[in-house]
Every structure is written in C-alpha cells, then in structure tokens.
Description:
Blueprint: H1 3-28, H2 34-57, H3 65-90, H4 97-124
Amino acid sequence: MDRTRFLLRTSAIYAFIGVMIGSHMAGSGDYVFRAIHAHILVVGWLSLFSFAIFYRLFSIPASSVLAKIHVWTSFLGTFGLTVGMWLYYANPIPNLATFNLLFFIIGGSVLFLGFFAFLLIAFVHGKHIHE
Length: 131
C-alpha cells in the first residue's frame, strides 16, 4: 500500500465533506455542526494531509510496523472520532446514546494512539530525517 497516496486521497475526501458541511451551515444559518465541521477539517483533512506529506518527504521504510500502525490508527481514529462526534451530537437514531458515546470515545482514543505512533516515528526513524 502506498501510504502517501492513501493518506492524501483520504484527506481530500475529508476536505470535501468539511466544505460541504461548512457550505450547508453558511446557507442555512444553522451552526449546530460547527464542532464536527472543525474536526473533520483539522483532523480529517489537515492532519492526514500533513502525514501524507511527511511520508513523501522523509524516507520512512515501507516495512516499518510502526508506520503501518500509525497510518491505520490515524485513518480509523479519524473516522471514529468524526463519525462518533456526529452520532453523539446529532443523535440521528434515538435510544443509542451509549453506543454513540462509546463510538466517539473509542474513535478519539484510537486517533490518540495514531498521534502517539507519529511521535514515536519522529524519534525512532529520526535518522531518516535530514536537514
């Protein structure tokens, strides 16, 4: 799997979704989704795009298990956090409050692990990062 292409394409999808939500909020005057909109753009678009650029600029070995963990926890955590946030705040299906909360919390926790994996990559694979 090409990490850079995967993260870049995923970030483009989040950017499009974020812009759609922002356009809807601007047109309707209803800003109930502002926190979701912000997280989709910052975590989904900006962070995943930044990770894509990181993997393009620095030669982190393709065989790195840590990098694979980073990519997948970032991808799954971003999805879990943003969808979980939507489920929690919008509550589209009544009587699922506990499920919505757990989806939100687990998604955010997985994303946290993704950022922790990135921190480790910056130090473990630091020898591959040159000025």
